[in-house]
Every structure is written in structure tokens, then in C-alpha cells.
Amino acid sequence: MLEKIIKMTRSEQQGAPRPVMLAIAGDSASGKTTLTKGLVEAVGPERCLSICVDDYHRYDREERRALPFTPLHPDCNYIDIMEQHLQLLALGRPILKPVYDHATGRFTRPQYVEPKEFVIIEGLHPLSTKLTRACFDVTVYLDPPEPIRRGWKVDRDCRKRGYTEAQVLAELERREPESQKFIRPQRRFADIVVRFAPIAGRDEPPGTPLSAELLLRPTIKHPALSSVLTDDHRDAIHLKIMRDQDGTPTDCLHVHGPASQEEARHVEKAIWEELEATHGLPERIGEINPGDRSEPLAITQLILLYHLLQTKTGA
Amino acid sequence: MLEKIIKMTRSEQQGAPRPVMLAIAGDSASGKTTLTKGLVEAVGPERCLSICVDDYHRYDREERRALPFTPLHPDCNYIDIMEQHLQLLALGRPILKPVYDHATGRFTRPQYVEPKEFVIIEGLHPLSTKLTRACFDVTVYLDPPEPIRRGWKVDRDCRKRGYTEAQVLAELERREPESQKFIRPQRRFADIVVRFAPIAGRDEPPGTPLSAELLLRPTIKHPALSSVLTDDHRDAIHLKIMRDQDGTPTDCLHVHGPASQEEARHVEKAIWEELEATHGLPERIGEINPGDRSEPLAITQLILLYHLLQTKTGA
């Protein structure tokens, strides 16, 4: 009987086209949704599905009160079901995704989700197991310095989720041991580690736009970017070699936040043209909030777009 | 990447023991839950999972009001997700099953379900597609005469679900075209068709226990029952050949409702012993409600137990 199932599953797989799968992992408020939003808009929502896989909780908020761990702990989540659903999506098949309502802390009606040409999976745990990692073509880990992430989390949770600053800071404290144990170790499994941060060692005045550092690991083939990595654009973008946390020499693309918008736009257009894009640069790429742009974010998104489109064409 | 997933899935499959899968299909109120209950009790709930797969609705009750079909229509259900979940269970893997609350007509928190040694799947559609059928070792279709089923449905829906008799009859009427089109065709895919009914052509006084007719199709190997299919027990049980609805000659086991309980019990013990059971006959086998027993139901359950245990040992 197993044979029958495998046979049928195989023939199904031949039918369903496989999507390009991109993981965007990172701790709470590390910028996953902002990064994803621009990518979906650039590819087109009709061709790109994005889902957040933080809804695979084993317990609702009420039940968690009696338990010693935070939602960051794998035992607090149905990691096996998340693995299963990622595999299904990677094979081009639909899932019935659990839905956790962050407003009430309870589970609601599950959602039928079908993969599209591109699937972006963002969340706390998408790179946490061997099996989940096997589902992705490209993997990203968002790694802002902790003080920056804390600021982002306080800002968002107070503005959008109705918490007080003291509550958010207490929650960050409570989660810290599990962040360290279960979230940050995923950094080592990403093809690209993205760090939005002030330039190290420089005393930038308040309000200076953050720069981006992209560790480009050799686990996938990165764009040559030959038209932008020239001396002309050195103030906006340059590639250097650095040592990764574990000492491995790694390519690091530095995108300079304080560069002029004109210069940044020039770089963006050049990358976009390398993608052999048939239409103009996507308008809302680099957008943090309506009216609030980051050129380093735009350039990061363009590099990820490169990977999505290159994987699609099999180049 | 597909290769990586298949490789990992295979090694997972080697790890998880595969359960024996039994389908019990049939229309609403055809006796699926009653039949299942005795099987679970006989095998032991710690070794046997039973689930009803009627929760894969695409719409809740409110949404269905605006739609032209009943829950019997495949388009009203996520048949693809049901297929997927049956495959996963058949491979020994857990699922996150949707849960539809029949009291409110809405979806609630999904349920994490892990297969056990034996998995019994009951519902309206478990034999409706090639892929679902491929998931089962043994398949049963419950086929009571329509007047009997209607009586059961009126009785149950009025007593347990708070409907009036007129409401239930109207609903039966409304569902009839879809019953005919989508439920009854599953009869042809069952290894065993079970029909609880009065003896045909005989004018039995009211209150006479129903008999059972079991079509035993050659798609699986049936028990020889050599110790019970003798002239001694002919009043309680006998095997005959008949033509199936499509004319195919088929074995039909007739279990006589009006036989004495003593005789029926003797037959039950003999079948139970053929199973090489190490403990006594399960007490609640044949139970319809507490205090209300049917010997033909008990004998039907024993034959299904035979199949469960034989498949398990690979005999």
C-alpha cells in the first residue's frame, strides 16, 4: 500500500509546478515583514505568496500562562507540522494552515493556502530543523544589533499591539534565554545574513539612516554586480571580505545608509537592469512605512529579487 | 532541492511505523460511529485512533446558506487536504486536523492527531477519490436501506442535535440528489459492504432485531470462518453467493437478527477464537447504546477486527 501512495504522490508531483521558496528568519521585530512586503510588491502578489509561520503554536495564550516557556521554545510549537507544511508547499501542494489570532491569543479558523510561483516564508523558526531548511532555495536571517531590534519591538508593540513600553521590555527580558538558544542559532544556516545597523565605530548623528551589511555565504551563487561594484559607487556600496562569527572568511556587501539618494537610486537601477527586468524599478521597494524609505533596504530587496528570479529561471 | 526533500521524507518513513488503515464510509446516520465505537473498544483506545473526516468543510454554516450545495458536495469540502491528511496518517505521520463544531456550525481550533497502530477513518467521503482509497488497507461502506437510515437520522438529529422531525426530513430531501451523486457511488469501492436491514421478503413483527448482510468482495482475503459456517450455526450465520448491484457474483455473509442470543454468542466466541485472541470477547462489542445490543453488529465488528489484526501481522 505504501508503494501505491508513493506512486500516486510522485505522479502528483510531476503535475504541480514547484515554487521558488525563500525563507526570512529572525527574532521578533527584526524587520521580516518589512523586508517581505517590498519583495511581494516587486514580484507581484499574483505571483508571490508570503506567509508567516509563527502560527504553529501548540498552546493558546491562556494555556501558556501555566507553562514555563515562551512562544520561542520549540516545545511550544508544532515544529513537525510546520516541517510538513513547508515540504508540501515546496512540492507545489496546498496546506490548511493554522491561524493564531495575536489580538485574542486564540486559534481561529485555519486557512487554505496554495503556493504561487514564489513563496516567501517568514517567521521565528523557518531554519530551525534540517527538514525545514531542505525546503528552501534561498535562506535569509535578519540580524540587527539587539539595541536596534529592541527599539523596533517597543515601537511596534506599543503602537500596533497595545502594550506599554514596560511590558514590552519585560517580555524581551523573559524571552532572552530562548532567543539565544533557539532563534539566533538559525543565523548560521542562512545563505544571506542581513544586518541593518549604524556604521560600526562611527559616531553618527541621531536620525542618520541605517546601513546594511549582507553576509553573502557561498552556499548559493550571488550576483556579480559588476556594474555597481566599481570605484564610482564606492560611497554607496562596496564588497569586502570579513570573518564571520565563527572565523570563516566571508563576502560582505556593505550598503551605506548615509549615501545620497541619487547615488543609491543609481545603484538600484543598475541592479534592477542586471535582472533583465522588462518594466521599471518597483515603486515601493525600500519602503518602511508609507513615505519612509530606506535605500539600503531597497538594495537588499533587489539582491533577494535577483535570487528569486535566478532560481526561477534555473540559472 | 526536490531530491533533498524526497530523501529526507524517505528516511522519516523508515522510522515511523505504518498504521493499519480502515475506512468506514457511508451517508449521514448510516451507523458509522456505532460500528467504529465497538472496534476501538475491542482493540483498545491506546492502540486505535478513530477520526471522523467530515470536518474538511470549505465553508462554515453561515457561508453555506448563500451556496447552492450541501456538505455532501465535494466542492463544499477541501477534498485535497483530506487526501493529504489521509496519506500522512497512512505513512505514520501526524496531522493538524481541522475541527468543525456541529453545534455552532463554525470552525474551531485544529487538533493535533498522531496515528496509532490502528487508524479508523469514518465519514461521508473517505472513498471518494483514487488517492484516498490508496490510503486504506480495508474499506467498508455502510449501506442500510434508505427508510432505515432516515429513521436513524430523524431519531439522532432530534434527540442529540436539537432539530425537529420536519427539519430533518426536509434536510434529507434537500441532500438526496447529492447523496445519490457523491455518497452512494463509494459503495462500489469498498472491500466489504455492510447492510443492516430486516430480512428481505419476510414480514417481521415490529421490534425484530435487524439482520446484517456483508458483501465480501475479493479485493481482500476474508476469514475462512470454517468453525462457524457449519450446518449447526445455519440459523445464526450462513454464506451465500449473490449478484452485486452491477451483476458481479459475490460472497454474501448473512447474519440472522432473530437468531437466539445464545446461538449468536456461540458464533461470536468461535470467530474471536479464530483471531487467536489471548483475552475474552470484548464486552461492549455489539453495543448500540448502553443496554441495547445487536448480535449481527457484534459479528460484523468481529469480522472487521479479523481484518485489522490480520493486516497488522501481515498474514
Protein model, in words:
2 copies of one chain form a homodimer. With 315 residues, chain A is an alpha/beta fold. Chain A contains 9 helices and 12 strands. In chain A, strands 2-5-1-6-7-8-10-9 form an 8-stranded mixed sheet, covered by helices on one side. In chain A, a hairpin with a 4-residue loop joins strand 3 (95-101) and strand 4 (106-113). In chain A, helix 6 packs across helix 7. The two termini of chain A are 39 Å apart. The A-B interface holds A 1-2, 4-5, 8-9, 12-13, 18, 21, 58, 60, 78, 80-81, 84, 87-88, 90-91, 93-96, 98, 106-110, 112, 130-131, 134-137 and B 1-2, 4-5, 8-9, 12-13, 18, 21, 58, 60, 78, 80-81, 84, 87-88, 90-91, 93-96, 98, 106-110, 112, 130-131, 134-137.
Layout of strands and helices, then pairs:
The structure is a homodimer of 315-residue chains.
Chain A: H1 2-15, E1 20-26, H2 32-43, E2 48-52, H3 61-64, H4 79-90, E3 95-101, E4 106-113, E5 118-123, H5 130-133, E6 138-142, H6 146-160, H7 165-183, E7 192-197, E8 211-216, E9 237-243, E10 249-255, H8 261-274, E11 287-289, E12 292-293, H9 295-313
Parallel strand pairs in A: 1-5, 1-6, 2-5, 6-7
Antiparallel strand pairs in A: 3-4, 7-8, 8-10, 9-10, 11-12
